[in-house]
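re: ur question from earlier - yeah i can do the single chain one, its not a big deal. heres the input i used so u can compare w yours
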Amino acid sequence: MLREDLDAPRKQKHTIGRIVERLAAEHDSELAAYSTVRDYVARRRPQLVVEAKEGRRHLEGMVPQAKQPGEEAGVDFADVWLDLAWQRRKCVLFTLRMSYSGKAVHRVYATASQEAFLEGHVEAFEVLGGVPAVHIRYDCEDDRVPLRAVA
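and the output i got, formated as tokens:
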């Protein structure tokens, strides 16, 4: 019963009284006193919670990110809306962000073209004073940036 309660909503967990009733009905155990069951449940429930967490500990973990200065950066395009000449226009924001420091360079372009992609890199490298030593991660999930520009 206590193991069933591990996944049950709080309001549907067995009370001590209900456990005593089920023991009597299902196991012909009329001898279990309320106080005995209460003391057992108070001791056993926390143990079962720990045991259940042991089995899925990997789901609660995390992978530490060990970044070194100047080694890695990420690049992404995002949509932005600008008011130009009294008209609202959809543009794209190029962002190159250093992973260790979080320092970022942003540039706005009319489109997410290959030219904007490459020019954004050149300007970011000039502002940062160099290129990342190990690699640059690219977010190309919406495929606006041609893959040949990434390669």
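Residues 142-151 have pLDDT under 50 and may be disordered. not sure if urs matches, ping me
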